[in-house]
Write a structure and sequence with these properties.
The chain has about 325 residues and is of the alpha/beta class. The chain has twelve helices and twelve strands.
């Protein structure tokens, strides 16, 4: 195997499995460093460019840890996966850590090989990101941006779709796609005006960004249509991600010009698994079919295509 370069930061290595994972990564060519506390993530912002991943040992103040994660994510862009390893309490709080900025949460009693196997898709994506940066091809320059939301537009999404599909195919991991739009946005425009409608679209994109992992791609395809790519995520976990987003949208208040606005959203999900016929464009088309089916079924819900499993209707 060709050695991979970059530094793995292990912060607060309270659980023995953290050291064992670090040893496996060192054998793969990474430089492994340890720190006594999570605050090491914030001490030297300039070190971000050299980080390949962060492993965090969780056993402390959850509120403080969430704040450190948020500050770490706010200080820079994608490219550094964050893996959190802790006890059952940490696992029960997985959704909180994911919302704060962690990419994956693992139980400390998992074997180190199992943790590394599940983390591999994000490590591989991070390697591709750093290679692009070193070649002078910043991903932010490659990705076309939507003027309203600042997210990748349809052309930028096409670039990331090809990149994620190739990575998933190469490392033998699933790839999932979620397509979503706002329910009855026309009525918002008619009641409050198109400026409020645009504001809702922009804030809706912000909700998706808060729910997604740092490595996921969320793009605006046009109008109120958004798409979300999840590398290394199968159907069930993609359905769970869509449900978290659906709940957050329905529970949010979107600030209009004169009055608060509440909306709901509908989601379509599709996945590709290793060994299946691999066509990234079909993946997106199937998610779009699922979205159409959900709209026909009543909105504010999630459907998956091909049919077979879905979360409960709202």
């Amino acid at each position: 195997m060709t050695p991979m370069h970059g530094t793995i930061l292990i912060a607060r290595p309270l659980w023995p499995v953290l050291g064992r994972v670090g040893d496996l990564l060192a054998h793969r060519g990474y430089s492994v460093e340890t720190a006594a506390s999570w605050s090491a993530l914030l001490a030297e912002p300039g070190r971000r460019a050299g980080l390949a991943a962060v492993l965090l040992g969780e056993y402390g103040s959850v509120a403080e840890e969430e704040e450190i994660l948020r500050r770490f994510r706010d200080a820079g862009g994608p490219g550094v996966p964050v893996f959190l390893i802790g006890g059952q309490g940490a696992v029960r709080r997985t959704h909180r850590f994911l919302e704060a900025g962690a990419d994956m949460v693992f139980a400390a009693d998992l074997p180190e090989a199992a943790i590394l196997e599940r983390a591999q898709p994000l490590l591989a994506y991070g390697e591709m990101y750093r290679s692009a940066v070193h070649a002078g091809r910043e991903l932010s320059d490659l990705a076309m941006r939507d003027g309203l939301t600042g997210l990748p537009d349809r052309r930028g999404f096409s670039l990331d779709l090809d990149r994620c599909a190739e990575t998933a195919r190469r490392i033998g991991r699933p790839l999932s796609c979620i397509v979503t739009d706002i329910d009855d946005l026309r009525s918002v425009n008619e009641k409050f005006g198109p400026e409020v409608g645009d504001s809702v679209i922009r804030q809706f994109g912000g909700v998706l960004v808060r729910v997604k992992r740092s490595y996921d791609t969320v793009a605006r395809l046009g109008g109120d249509d958004f798409v979300w790519l999840l590398l290394g995520v199968g159907r069930d976990d993609a359905l769970g991600a869509a449900e978290r987003a659906r709940r957050m949208v329905s529970g949010s208040v979107f600030n209009g010009t004169h009055a608060p606005v509440r909306v709901t959203a509908t989601f379509g999900v599709s996945s590709l698994s290793p060994g299946e016929e691999w066509n990234a464009q079909t993946l997106v088309e199937n998610a779009d079919r699922a979205l159409y089916w959900a709209k026909e079924s009543g909105k504010n819900m999630i459907r998956v295509y091909p049919p077979g499993k879905e979360v409960a209707d709202a």
